[in-house]
Amino acid sequence: VSAQDRVDSLRAHLDEDGVDAALISTPANMRYLTGFARVFDDSIAGAAVIAPRYQRFYTDSRYIEAARAAAEGTMWDVRQQRESLFTEVCDDLKADGVGTIAMESSVPHSRFVFISDRFDGRVVISDRWVESLREVKDAGELDAAGRAATLTDAAFDHVLGMLRPGLREVDVALELEVYMRGNGSEGLAFEPIVASGPNSSKPHAGISLREIEPGDLLTMDLGARIDGYCADLTRTVVVGARATAEQRRIYEAVLAANEAGIAAVRAGVSAREVDAVSRDLLTSLHLGEYFGHSLGHGVGLQVHEGPRLAPRSDDILRSGSLVTIEPGVYVPGFGGVRIEDLVAVEERGSRTLSRASKDLIEIV
Ligand code: ZN
Ligand code: ZN
Questions:
Q1: Ligand 1 centroid vs 234 CA: distance in angstroms?
Q2: Residues of 98-121 as b/e, b for ≥16 C-beta within 10 angstroms?
Q3: Residues with CB in 5 Å of ion ligand 1
Q4: Is 179 helix (H, G, I), strand (E, B) or coil?
Protein backbone atom coordinates (compact mmCIF):
# COMPACT_ATOMS: atom_id res chain seq x y z
CA VAL A 1 0.00 0.00 0.00
CA SER A 2 1.48 3.34 -0.98
CA ALA A 3 0.85 6.62 0.76
CA GLN A 4 -1.03 7.69 -2.37
CA ASP A 5 -3.53 4.85 -1.80
CA ARG A 6 -4.17 6.34 1.65
CA VAL A 7 -4.90 9.73 0.10
CA ASP A 8 -7.26 8.09 -2.36
CA SER A 9 -9.10 6.31 0.48
CA LEU A 10 -9.53 9.66 2.17
CA ARG A 11 -10.88 11.11 -1.09
CA ALA A 12 -13.54 8.40 -1.11
CA HIS A 13 -14.69 9.74 2.28
CA LEU A 14 -14.87 13.26 0.87
CA ASP A 15 -17.02 12.03 -1.96
CA GLU A 16 -19.36 10.03 0.30
CA ASP A 17 -19.87 12.92 2.69
CA GLY A 18 -20.15 15.69 0.12
CA VAL A 19 -17.10 17.51 1.48
CA ASP A 20 -14.86 19.55 -0.85
CA ALA A 21 -11.57 19.18 1.02
CA ALA A 22 -10.02 17.62 4.12
CA LEU A 23 -7.75 19.77 6.26
CA ILE A 24 -5.52 17.41 8.24
CA SER A 25 -3.18 18.95 10.80
CA THR A 26 -2.29 16.42 13.50
CA PRO A 27 1.29 15.15 13.07
CA ALA A 28 0.58 11.41 13.04
CA ASN A 29 -2.21 11.78 10.48
CA MET A 30 -0.10 14.06 8.27
CA ARG A 31 2.79 11.65 8.44
CA TYR A 32 0.52 8.74 7.55
CA LEU A 33 -1.07 10.45 4.56
CA THR A 34 2.07 11.99 3.11
CA GLY A 35 4.31 9.01 3.79
CA PHE A 36 7.12 11.54 4.23
CA ALA A 37 10.01 10.11 6.24
CA ARG A 38 12.28 12.28 8.38
CA VAL A 39 10.01 15.32 8.22
CA PHE A 40 7.63 15.07 11.14
CA ASP A 41 8.14 15.54 14.83
CA ASP A 42 5.47 16.01 17.46
CA SER A 43 5.73 19.77 17.38
CA ILE A 44 5.65 20.33 13.61
CA ALA A 45 3.36 23.09 12.40
CA GLY A 46 1.87 21.90 9.17
CA ALA A 47 -1.31 21.18 7.28
CA ALA A 48 -2.23 18.69 4.61
CA VAL A 49 -5.11 19.76 2.39
CA ILE A 50 -6.66 17.03 0.29
CA ALA A 51 -9.21 17.86 -2.38
CA PRO A 52 -10.41 15.73 -5.28
CA ARG A 53 -7.95 17.30 -7.69
CA TYR A 54 -5.01 18.36 -5.54
CA GLN A 55 -3.11 17.59 -2.37
CA ARG A 56 -1.03 20.24 -0.68
CA PHE A 57 1.28 20.17 2.26
CA TYR A 58 2.04 23.40 4.10
CA THR A 59 4.79 23.89 6.61
CA ASP A 60 7.24 26.53 7.76
CA SER A 61 10.91 27.21 7.10
CA ARG A 62 12.08 24.80 9.79
CA TYR A 63 10.66 21.81 7.94
CA ILE A 64 10.40 22.99 4.35
CA GLU A 65 13.65 21.60 2.99
CA ALA A 66 12.99 18.12 4.34
CA ALA A 67 9.38 18.25 3.13
CA ARG A 68 10.35 19.30 -0.40
CA ALA A 69 12.90 16.48 -0.58
CA ALA A 70 10.39 13.93 0.71
CA ALA A 71 7.73 15.09 -1.74
CA GLU A 72 9.90 14.59 -4.79
CA GLY A 73 8.25 12.19 -7.20
CA THR A 74 4.94 12.28 -5.33
CA MET A 75 1.67 14.11 -6.06
CA TRP A 76 2.21 16.48 -3.12
CA ASP A 77 2.42 20.20 -3.77
CA VAL A 78 4.55 21.52 -0.91
CA ARG A 79 3.98 25.16 0.07
CA GLN A 80 5.95 27.23 2.49
CA GLN A 81 4.03 29.14 5.11
CA ARG A 82 5.11 32.79 5.24
CA GLU A 83 3.36 34.26 8.25
CA SER A 84 0.29 32.54 9.61
CA LEU A 85 -0.14 28.94 8.54
CA PHE A 86 -3.88 28.62 8.91
CA THR A 87 -4.61 32.09 7.53
CA GLU A 88 -2.79 31.11 4.36
CA VAL A 89 -4.46 27.70 4.20
CA CYS A 90 -7.90 29.31 4.57
CA ASP A 91 -7.14 31.98 1.96
CA ASP A 92 -6.05 29.32 -0.53
CA LEU A 93 -9.21 27.33 0.13
CA LYS A 94 -11.33 30.41 -0.48
CA ALA A 95 -9.43 31.18 -3.68
CA ASP A 96 -10.19 27.64 -4.87
CA GLY A 97 -13.90 28.09 -4.24
CA VAL A 98 -14.01 25.36 -1.58
CA GLY A 99 -17.37 25.45 0.23
CA THR A 100 -17.03 22.69 2.85
CA ILE A 101 -13.96 21.41 4.65
CA ALA A 102 -13.57 18.54 7.07
CA MET A 103 -11.23 18.78 10.06
CA GLU A 104 -10.12 16.30 12.67
CA SER A 105 -11.92 16.55 15.99
CA SER A 106 -8.61 16.00 17.77
CA VAL A 107 -7.15 19.39 16.76
CA PRO A 108 -6.73 21.97 19.52
CA HIS A 109 -9.94 23.86 20.17
CA SER A 110 -8.26 27.20 19.47
CA ARG A 111 -7.25 26.03 15.98
CA PHE A 112 -10.76 24.81 15.29
CA VAL A 113 -12.20 28.18 16.30
CA PHE A 114 -9.60 30.10 14.31
CA ILE A 115 -10.25 28.16 11.12
CA SER A 116 -14.02 28.23 11.55
CA ASP A 117 -13.79 32.03 11.78
CA ARG A 118 -11.33 32.57 8.97
CA PHE A 119 -12.80 30.09 6.49
CA ASP A 120 -16.11 31.38 5.12
CA GLY A 121 -17.59 28.03 4.22
CA ARG A 122 -18.88 25.11 6.24
CA VAL A 123 -16.57 23.21 8.60
CA VAL A 124 -17.43 19.62 9.48
CA ILE A 125 -15.67 17.03 11.61
CA SER A 126 -13.90 14.21 9.76
CA ASP A 127 -14.02 12.03 12.75
CA ARG A 128 -11.64 9.14 12.63
CA TRP A 129 -11.38 9.16 8.81
CA VAL A 130 -7.62 8.91 8.91
CA GLU A 131 -7.47 7.17 12.28
CA SER A 132 -9.62 4.36 10.96
CA LEU A 133 -7.33 3.86 7.97
CA ARG A 134 -4.37 3.83 10.34
CA GLU A 135 -5.87 0.96 12.33
CA VAL A 136 -5.02 -1.48 9.54
CA LYS A 137 -1.29 -1.64 8.97
CA ASP A 138 0.37 -2.68 5.74
CA ALA A 139 3.44 -4.92 5.53
CA GLY A 140 5.87 -2.01 5.72
CA GLU A 141 4.24 -0.62 8.85
CA LEU A 142 4.18 -4.05 10.52
CA ASP A 143 7.84 -4.47 9.67
CA ALA A 144 8.79 -1.14 11.26
CA ALA A 145 6.77 -1.93 14.39
CA GLY A 146 8.37 -5.37 14.51
CA ARG A 147 11.84 -3.83 14.46
CA ALA A 148 10.80 -1.42 17.21
CA ALA A 149 9.52 -4.38 19.25
CA THR A 150 12.78 -6.28 18.75
CA LEU A 151 14.82 -3.30 19.92
CA THR A 152 12.52 -2.90 22.92
CA ASP A 153 13.01 -6.57 23.84
CA ALA A 154 16.77 -6.08 23.58
CA ALA A 155 16.63 -3.05 25.90
CA PHE A 156 14.76 -5.13 28.47
CA ASP A 157 17.29 -7.96 28.21
CA HIS A 158 20.13 -5.46 28.49
CA VAL A 159 18.81 -3.87 31.66
CA LEU A 160 18.17 -7.26 33.28
CA GLY A 161 21.94 -7.66 33.42
CA MET A 162 22.38 -4.62 35.64
CA LEU A 163 19.35 -4.74 37.95
CA ARG A 164 20.20 -4.98 41.65
CA PRO A 165 19.01 -3.57 44.95
CA GLY A 166 20.27 -0.03 45.55
CA LEU A 167 19.77 1.06 41.96
CA ARG A 168 17.28 3.89 41.65
CA GLU A 169 14.25 3.86 39.36
CA VAL A 170 15.70 6.81 37.42
CA ASP A 171 18.95 4.90 36.82
CA VAL A 172 17.02 2.03 35.25
CA ALA A 173 14.89 4.37 33.13
CA LEU A 174 17.96 6.20 31.90
CA GLU A 175 19.70 2.96 30.98
CA LEU A 176 16.64 1.82 29.01
CA GLU A 177 16.54 5.12 27.17
CA VAL A 178 20.27 5.20 26.41
CA TYR A 179 20.15 1.64 25.12
CA MET A 180 17.16 2.21 22.86
CA ARG A 181 18.33 5.54 21.48
CA GLY A 182 21.87 4.28 21.10
CA ASN A 183 20.63 1.37 19.02
CA GLY A 184 18.42 3.19 16.56
CA SER A 185 15.26 4.30 18.35
CA GLU A 186 13.97 7.70 17.12
CA GLY A 187 13.41 9.31 20.48
CA LEU A 188 11.15 6.99 22.45
CA ALA A 189 7.59 5.84 21.89
CA PHE A 190 6.85 7.23 25.38
CA GLU A 191 8.60 7.98 28.67
CA PRO A 192 9.43 4.59 30.20
CA ILE A 193 7.76 3.59 33.43
CA VAL A 194 10.01 2.05 36.08
CA ALA A 195 8.06 1.32 39.24
CA SER A 196 9.59 -0.54 42.17
CA GLY A 197 8.16 -2.08 45.32
CA PRO A 198 5.10 -0.18 46.56
CA ASN A 199 5.24 2.07 43.46
CA SER A 200 4.50 -0.93 41.26
CA SER A 201 0.88 -0.93 42.36
CA LYS A 202 0.38 2.41 40.59
CA PRO A 203 -0.10 1.47 36.92
CA HIS A 204 1.36 4.74 35.59
CA ALA A 205 3.68 5.70 38.41
CA GLY A 206 6.10 8.49 37.65
CA ILE A 207 9.76 7.52 37.84
CA SER A 208 11.19 8.36 41.24
CA LEU A 209 14.55 8.47 42.99
CA ARG A 210 13.52 5.47 45.06
CA GLU A 211 16.18 2.78 45.45
CA ILE A 212 15.18 -0.76 44.60
CA GLU A 213 15.01 -2.89 47.75
CA PRO A 214 15.58 -6.65 48.04
CA GLY A 215 12.38 -8.52 47.23
CA ASP A 216 10.81 -5.68 45.26
CA LEU A 217 8.53 -6.25 42.35
CA LEU A 218 9.87 -4.04 39.56
CA THR A 219 7.63 -3.13 36.63
CA MET A 220 9.19 -1.69 33.48
CA ASP A 221 7.03 -0.36 30.63
CA LEU A 222 9.03 0.75 27.61
CA GLY A 223 8.89 1.26 23.87
CA ALA A 224 11.30 2.13 21.10
CA ARG A 225 10.23 3.88 17.90
CA ILE A 226 11.54 3.03 14.45
CA ASP A 227 10.53 4.69 11.15
CA GLY A 228 7.79 6.41 13.15
CA TYR A 229 6.29 3.20 14.51
CA CYS A 230 6.05 2.54 18.23
CA ALA A 231 6.53 -0.56 20.34
CA ASP A 232 5.06 -1.06 23.81
CA LEU A 233 6.29 -3.72 26.25
CA THR A 234 5.82 -4.29 29.98
CA ARG A 235 7.54 -6.85 32.15
CA THR A 236 7.63 -7.27 35.91
CA VAL A 237 10.53 -8.94 37.67
CA VAL A 238 11.56 -9.60 41.28
CA VAL A 239 14.87 -8.05 42.34
CA GLY A 240 17.24 -9.12 45.11
CA ALA A 241 15.33 -12.16 46.37
CA ARG A 242 13.26 -15.14 45.33
CA ALA A 243 9.61 -14.32 44.71
CA THR A 244 7.31 -14.83 47.67
CA ALA A 245 4.40 -17.22 47.27
CA GLU A 246 2.01 -14.26 46.97
CA GLN A 247 4.15 -12.53 44.34
CA ARG A 248 4.29 -15.76 42.38
CA ARG A 249 0.53 -16.33 42.67
CA ILE A 250 -0.19 -12.85 41.31
CA TYR A 251 2.41 -13.18 38.57
CA GLU A 252 1.02 -16.51 37.37
CA ALA A 253 -2.50 -15.06 37.32
CA VAL A 254 -1.48 -12.04 35.25
CA LEU A 255 0.50 -14.25 32.88
CA ALA A 256 -2.50 -16.52 32.42
CA ALA A 257 -4.68 -13.46 31.70
CA ASN A 258 -2.10 -12.19 29.18
CA GLU A 259 -1.95 -15.55 27.40
CA ALA A 260 -5.72 -16.01 27.37
CA GLY A 261 -6.16 -12.51 25.96
CA ILE A 262 -3.64 -13.17 23.20
CA ALA A 263 -5.31 -16.48 22.39
CA ALA A 264 -8.63 -14.64 21.93
CA VAL A 265 -7.23 -12.17 19.39
CA ARG A 266 -8.42 -12.76 15.84
CA ALA A 267 -9.87 -10.62 13.05
CA GLY A 268 -13.63 -10.14 13.43
CA VAL A 269 -13.70 -10.57 17.22
CA SER A 270 -15.00 -7.68 19.26
CA ALA A 271 -12.34 -5.89 21.27
CA ARG A 272 -14.69 -5.94 24.24
CA GLU A 273 -14.79 -9.73 24.11
CA VAL A 274 -11.00 -10.01 24.22
CA ASP A 275 -10.95 -7.66 27.22
CA ALA A 276 -13.57 -9.84 28.91
CA VAL A 277 -11.55 -13.05 28.42
CA SER A 278 -8.61 -11.68 30.44
CA ARG A 279 -10.76 -9.81 32.91
CA ASP A 280 -13.01 -12.80 33.65
CA LEU A 281 -9.98 -14.99 34.24
CA LEU A 282 -8.62 -12.57 36.85
CA THR A 283 -12.06 -12.30 38.41
CA SER A 284 -12.29 -16.09 38.69
CA LEU A 285 -9.02 -15.94 40.65
CA HIS A 286 -10.49 -13.25 42.94
CA LEU A 287 -8.14 -10.64 41.50
CA GLY A 288 -10.60 -8.82 39.25
CA GLU A 289 -10.96 -5.88 41.62
CA TYR A 290 -7.22 -5.17 41.27
CA PHE A 291 -7.37 -4.83 37.47
CA GLY A 292 -8.70 -1.33 36.93
CA HIS A 293 -7.58 -0.33 33.44
CA SER A 294 -8.48 -1.58 30.00
CA LEU A 295 -6.79 -4.64 28.52
CA GLY A 296 -5.09 -2.91 25.63
CA HIS A 297 -4.93 -0.39 22.84
CA GLY A 298 -3.89 -0.04 19.25
CA VAL A 299 -0.28 0.98 18.52
CA GLY A 300 1.21 2.54 15.40
CA LEU A 301 2.50 6.01 14.64
CA GLN A 302 1.14 6.83 18.08
CA VAL A 303 1.59 4.59 21.08
CA HIS A 304 -2.09 4.91 21.92
CA GLU A 305 -4.45 4.68 18.98
CA GLY A 306 -7.38 2.55 17.91
CA PRO A 307 -8.77 0.01 18.46
CA ARG A 308 -9.56 0.11 22.18
CA LEU A 309 -9.67 -3.18 24.06
CA ALA A 310 -11.91 -2.20 26.92
CA PRO A 311 -15.13 -3.30 28.60
CA ARG A 312 -17.23 -0.70 26.78
CA SER A 313 -15.40 -0.65 23.44
CA ASP A 314 -17.46 -1.03 20.26
CA ASP A 315 -14.40 -1.75 18.14
CA ILE A 316 -14.04 -4.93 16.11
CA LEU A 317 -10.51 -6.24 15.62
CA ARG A 318 -9.34 -6.06 12.02
CA SER A 319 -6.59 -8.05 10.32
CA GLY A 320 -3.47 -5.89 10.23
CA SER A 321 -4.16 -4.06 13.47
CA LEU A 322 -1.47 -3.91 16.11
CA VAL A 323 -2.71 -4.08 19.67
CA THR A 324 -1.33 -4.52 23.15
CA ILE A 325 -2.55 -7.14 25.60
CA GLU A 326 -1.60 -5.82 29.02
CA PRO A 327 -3.48 -7.15 32.01
CA GLY A 328 -2.26 -6.10 35.43
CA VAL A 329 -2.97 -6.71 39.09
CA TYR A 330 -2.22 -3.84 41.45
CA VAL A 331 -2.55 -4.38 45.17
CA PRO A 332 -2.11 -1.09 47.07
CA GLY A 333 0.72 -1.28 49.58
CA PHE A 334 1.86 -4.65 48.23
CA GLY A 335 2.82 -4.02 44.64
CA GLY A 336 1.74 -4.83 41.17
CA VAL A 337 2.40 -6.98 38.16
CA ARG A 338 1.71 -6.07 34.53
CA ILE A 339 2.66 -8.13 31.48
CA GLU A 340 2.23 -6.42 28.13
CA ASP A 341 2.85 -7.75 24.65
CA LEU A 342 2.50 -6.20 21.22
CA VAL A 343 0.33 -8.39 19.02
CA ALA A 344 -0.53 -8.24 15.32
CA VAL A 345 -4.12 -9.24 14.54
CA GLU A 346 -4.40 -11.80 11.77
CA GLU A 347 -7.29 -13.42 9.92
CA ARG A 348 -7.11 -16.65 11.94
CA GLY A 349 -5.37 -15.55 15.09
CA SER A 350 -2.44 -13.34 15.93
CA ARG A 351 1.31 -12.97 15.86
CA THR A 352 3.09 -11.73 18.99
CA LEU A 353 5.84 -9.26 18.12
CA SER A 354 7.19 -9.00 21.70
CA ARG A 355 9.64 -11.77 22.44
CA ALA A 356 11.00 -10.79 25.87
CA SER A 357 10.75 -13.68 28.32
CA LYS A 358 7.54 -13.97 30.32
CA ASP A 359 8.92 -16.45 32.86
CA LEU A 360 8.96 -15.01 36.36
CA ILE A 361 12.47 -13.58 36.49
CA GLU A 362 14.08 -13.44 39.95
CA ILE A 363 17.32 -11.46 40.02
CA VAL A 364 19.30 -12.70 42.99
ZN1 ZN B 1 3.09 -0.05 27.88
ZN1 ZN C 1 0.33 -0.09 26.46
A1: 5
A2: bebbbbbeebeeebbebbeebbeb
A3: 221, 232, 234, 340
A4: helix
Question: What's the CA-to-centroid distance between 39 and ligand 1, angstroms?
Answer: 26
C-alpha to C-alpha distance for 7 and 35, rounded to whole angstroms = 10
Ligand nearest to the CA of 221: 1
Task: Tell me how crowded residue 314 is: count the other CB atoms within 10 A of its CB.
Answer: 10
User: Is the Cα torsion angle 116, 117, 118, 122 positive or negative in sign?
Assistant: positive
Tens-place pLDDT, residues 62-89: 999 999 999 999 999 999 998 899 999 9
Distance CA 346, CA 142 (A): 12
**Pairing label, strands 362-363, 233-239:** parallel
33 CA distance to ligand 1 centroid (A)? 26
Helices 139-160 and 169-182: angle between axes, nearest 10 degrees:
140
Q: Residue 134: in which H helix or E strand, if any? A: helix 129-134
| Per-residue confidence (pLDDT) for residue 158, from 0 to 100 | 98
Min mean pLDDT across 108-122, 246-260, 314-328 is at 108-122
Radius of gyration of the chain measured on its C-alpha atoms: 23
Give the model's confidence band at 214: pLDDT under 50 very low, under 70 low, under 90 confident, else very high: very high
Interval between CA 271 and ligand 2 midpoint (Å): 15
For 329, phi then psi, to 5°, come to: -130, 125
**Phi, psi angles (nearest 5°) of residue 71:** -80, -10
